[in-house]
Design goal:
The structure is a homodimer. Chain A has about 375 residues and is an alpha+beta fold. Chain A has three domains: about 110 residues, DNA Polymerase III, Chain A, domain 2, CATH 3.10.150; about 120 residues, DNA Polymerase III, subunit A, domain 2 (DNA Polymerase III, Chain A, domain 2, Roll); about 110 residues, DNA Polymerase III, subunit A, domain 2 (DNA Polymerase III, Chain A, domain 2), CATH 3.10.150. Chain A is built from six helices and 25 strands. Chain A has a nine-stranded antiparallel β-sheet. In chain A, helix 1 packs antiparallel against helix 2, helix 3 crosses helix 4 and helix 5 packs antiparallel against helix 6. Chain A is elongated. The termini of chain A are far apart. The interface between A and B is medium-sized, with 27 and 27 residues. Strand 9 of chain A pairs antiparallel with strand 20 of chain B.
C-alpha cells in the first residue's frame, strides 16, 4: 500500500476515528487504526466492538492495499510531522514507512484483514436532523445517565421517534431529563436505548453546525449515524425502557419563575459547603417575592436571597445542589419556571412547550 | 476584625500567596491564609515554612484585627462570589462571615497569633533587576535542577553575584545550565543556593515586565525577593556548590551552527520512539553540510536530515533526546552553535558572549 495525504487531512481523520479506539483491550489489533486504500478512496477506521467509526479522507492512492497501525503511535507521529504532504507506504511484511520532507519513520503494522470492521446495514429512510440539534440534545440530557449501573438500561439514553417528534430521555435514581425536538419530516415510530458512551463520543465529532445534517438509522441491535464523510455505528442496549410518562404530572401547588443565571451562581456557591462524603442538601425557602437558599455543613454555612415571581403556596424544600445545577445548566433560557407539589414530591423544571422537562427528586432535611 | 475589599483585589492577593500554601502539613494553621488588618494596611500571608509570601491588598479596615482562614476554602468562596465589594468580619470566637451582595458565608477561623509569619531581615543594598530578567533566568535554568536528589544541593540553583554580573547555575548528573546577566549596578560578591521549588513558585507570580523591578537580599540562611507590594522569603540550601568552572572548556574539535527550531522539531519527533523504560539515544551523525539524526528502538525507527554549517571534523555522537530538547528550548536565538570534542565528551551549546552555556553529556550507543 502507498498513499499520500496532507498532514492536516490525516489529523482531521485521526481525530474523528480516535474516539472509537479502545483504551485497553485483549484484542490488540483493535487498538489500531485501519487504513483502507483498497479502492481509490482512503478510509480510516477504529472499532472498540461497542462503537465503530469510519471516515473518508482526501488523498492519493499510489498503490492499493490496507494496513492496521497502532492508533496512539500513528497519531503521535503524524502530529509531530511538518505541516506538509505525508507518504505512508507498507511492504508485504507490513513494515510501514511514514515520510514527510526529510523525516522518515519506520514502524511495524498489522495485517488489515484481521481487523474487525464496523458493521453496517441498509435502511430505506433514516431520521434527519441538524448536527447542532443532535449535539444540543446530547449535551442537555447526557449528565443524568448513570455512569455505571448494574441495570445497563440506565447507562443509555432512550431515543423515541414518533411521527415528526424526536424525544430523548435519560434518568438515574434521582432525576429524569427529557428533551423534545420537532423533525422536518414524518417517520414511522421507532425507539432504542443508545449507550451514553456512544453519545458522549459522537457529540465530540459533530460539527455542531445548523446547516450540516446527520442521518440516523436503526436496526434491531445497532444505531448508525452518518454525517459528512463519516459513519458511526454503535450497539444498542437491549431491554425495555422505563415508562417515564407515568412519572410526569402537570399538577402543582407552587410555581416560581426565576433568573436562571442568578440561581445557578447561587447554587454553585453553595456546593463549597458540600464534601463528597457528607451530602448536605440546599434548602430553598420559597416566599412571596424572594426565595432564601441555605446550606449548612460541618465546613460552615451559606445563605442567599433571590428575587422570584411566585404563584401558589409558600414551600420549603431540600435538594442535592448538584442535581439542580446539572438541570439548570442544560437550559439556555434566561428565565426558568419550577413547579412544586410538596416537600416530598419531585420538582419539575419545564418550559411551556415541553421542549424540556427536568424532574429532580427532593431530599429530606432536618433544621 | 472587619475589612472590605473588591473581589478582584482579594483574588489578586490570594493568587499570589497561594503559592506558599503547603499541600499537606501537620501544622494545620499553616494551611491557612493569614489576613492581617491590625494596621490600616491589609496584608495576606501564607507560609509553608520553606517559602513564605506576604502581599498587601487594597481595601478598607473597618475594625482592626487578624484572622487565619483555611486557604483553599477561603480562596474557593471568594472566587465564586459576584464581582463586587466583599466584607469579611470575624468575631471574638474567630467565627468569620464573608458577605457579598445578598450572599453570606459563615466559616470558622483560627487565631492569627498562632500563625508562623514570614521571617524578614534588613539589608542595606539588595540586588536589583527587572522582573522579566529574573523570570527568564529561572525558566532558562530550572529544568536541569534535580527534582529530588539525596544530595540536597542539586535540588537548588546557584545564584552568584560578582560585581555587576549575576550568574545562575543548575545541574543534575547529566547536564549543566548556566545563564549570565549584567546588572545595572555594582555589588560585593555574594552567592547562595536557592531551592528549585522557591524559584518555580516565584516565577509564577512575577509580572514578567521589563519596567517592574525586583529586589533580592541575602542573609545567612534566607533569600528575600521584594517586588510590587509583595515579599517572598525562602530558606537557602546549606552547603558548598559544585565547582562548575572546572567542567567548562572552550576547546573543541567540531563546531556546528544549526537552525534551532528545525533541530527542536526533529528531536521532538524522535522522542516518540522512546519509552520511559527503554531510554534509546538519538544519534547525531555530523557531516559536512548535513547532520543525520537517527533513533531506533523496539517501537520503530526515525531518521531525518538537517542542514548545518560545520567547522572541524566529522563526528557521530549519541544523546538522551530529552536533555538536548530542554537546553534548546531554553534558548531564544534563531541559530545555535554546538561544540563537540569527541563522542565521549560533553557537548556545549553556547553563544559568543557566554550569556548562556548548556553542557550535555553524551550517552554510549551501539549500532
Amino acid at each position: 500500500m502507498k498513499i499520500s495525504c496532507l498532514k492536516s487531512e490525516l489529523i482531521r481523520g485521526i481525530n474523528i476515528v480516535m474516539k472509537a479506539v479502545p483504551v485497553r483491550t485483549t484484542l490488540s489489533i483493535q487498538e489500531c487504526i485501519l487504513i483502507d486504500a483498497s479502492t481509490p478512496r482512503i478510509t480510516l477506521t477504529a472499532n472498540d466492538m461497542e462503537l465503530g467509526i469510519e471516515t473518508v479522507i482526501d488523498g492519493t492512492v499510489e498503490k492499493r492495499g490496507i494496513i492496521a497501525l497502532d492508533a496512539k503511535l500513528f497519531s503521535d507521529i503524524i502530529r509531530k510531522l511538518p505541516d506538509e504532504m505525508v507518504v505512508i507506504e507498507s511492504d508485504d511484511l507490513m513494515n510501514t514507512t511514514i515520510r514527510c520532507e526529510k523525516a522518515k519513520f519506520q514502524i511495524p503494522g498489522l495485517e488489515g484483514d484481521d481487523f474487525s470492521r464496523v458493521p453496517t446495514f441498509e435502511q430505506e429512510k433514516g431520521v434527519v436532523l441538524s448536527q447542532l440539534s443532535l449535539r444540543d440534545l446530547i449535551r442537555q440530557t447526557l449528565f443524568s445517565v448513570s455512569a455505571a449501573d448494574p441495570n445497563k438500561i440506565m447507562t443509555g439514553e432512550y431515543f423515541e421517534i414518533n411521527d415528526d417528534m424526536l424525544r430523548v430521555i435519560s434518568l438515574d435514581g434521582h432525576r429524569v431529563s427529557i428533551r423534545r425536538v420537532q423533525l422536518k419530516d414524518h417517520y414511522s415510530p421507532v425507539s432504542a436505548i443508545v449507550p451514553g458512551k456512544t453519545l458522549s463520543e459522537i457529540s465530540k465529532i459533530l460539527t455542531g453546525s445548523l446547516e450540516d445534517e446527520v442521518n440516523i438509522c436503526f436496526s434491531d441491535n445497532l444505531i448508525m449515524f452518518s454525517f459528512d464523510e463519516t459513519i458511526v455505528v454503535s450497539r444498542l442496549i437491549d431491554g425495555r425502557y422505563f415508562n417515564v410518562d407515568q412519572m410526569l404530572t402537570t399538577d402543582y401547588e407552587t410555581r416560581i419563575t426565576v433568573n436562571r443565571r442568578e440561581l445557578v451562581d447561587c447554587i454553585d456557591r453553595s456546593t463549597l459547603m458540600v464534601r463528597e462524603d457528607d451530602r448536605k442538601p440546599i434548602i430553598m425557602n420559597i416566599g412571596d417575592e424572594e426565595m432564601e437558599l441555605k446550606i449548612t455543613s460541618y465546613i460552615g454555612s451559606m445563605d442567599d436571597l433571590i428575587s422570584i415571581d411566585k404563584e401558589g403556596r409558600d414551600i420549603k424544600i431540600g435538594f442535592n445542589p448538584k442535581y439542580l445545577l446539572d438541570a439548570l445548566r442544560a437550559i439556555d433560557d434566561e428565565e426558568v419556571s419550577m413547579y412544586f407539589m410538596n416537600s416530598k414530591s419531585p420538582c419539575f423544571i419545564r418550559d411551556e412547550k415541553d421542549s424540556y422537562i427536568y424532574l429532580v427528586l427532593p431530599v429530606n432535611f432536618v433544621e
